[in-house]
Amino acid sequence: MSEDLHVGYGVTIPAAELLVRFSRSGGPGGQNVNKRATRAEVVFDLLASPSVPTPLKRRAKRRLEHRMDSRGRIRVVADDERTQAANRDLARARLRDLLRAGFKPPPPRRKPTKPSPAARERRLAEKRHRGLLKRARKAPPVE
C-alpha cells in the first residue's frame, strides 16, 4: 500500500517497518470527524530497525530521545487534513524530517580565536575616546 520512506544519509526505511494506524480526528471536517478515522499515526521502531546503520542509530537516539518511548519507538501524529491519505502522507513527511534531523552530523568544533592586535588597539582607542567625552561633560571643579 505505502511506499518506502527515503530519509537521506543513505537510509531508506521499508514500508513494512512503519506501523500506520488511524483513529478519529478532532481536526477540521465538521461532522465528518465523528464518522471517519482520518487521524494518522506512524510508529517507527528506530532501535530495532535493520535499515538504519548502528552509528546513525546512536546519533539519532541521542538527539531524539525526547521523542522516543521507553522501547525506542518514535511516534508521529497528523490530523491537520480531512482525509486519511493526506494525514498519512503528512505524518510520514514529519517522521522523515525528524529522522533527518536526528541523523545530521554534529557541527564542526569551534576553534577559539583571539582578537588581532589592530582590533585590540581600536577597542582601546574607542574606550579612551569615550572616557574623554564623559570627562568633558562633567562640570569643572569649583574652587
Protein model, in words:
With about 140 residues, this protein is α+β, with helices and mostly antiparallel strands. The strands form two sheets. Strands 3-4-5 form a three-stranded antiparallel sheet. A two-stranded antiparallel sheet has the order 1-2. The protein has a domain at about 5-105: Double Stranded RNA Binding Domain. The N and C termini lie far apart (about 95 Å). The longest helix has 21 residues, at about 115-135. The protein contains four helices and five strands. It is elongated and about 90 Å long. A hairpin with a 2-residue loop joins strand 1 and strand 2 (about 10-15).
Characterize the main sheet. 3 strands, antiparallel
Q: What is the number of strand segments?
A: 5
Give the name of the CATH architecture of the domain at 5-103: 2-Layer Sandwich
Show unreliable segments. Answer: none
Strand order of the largest sheet: 3-4-5
Q: What's the number of helices? A: 4
- Spatial separation of the terminal alpha carbons: 96 Å
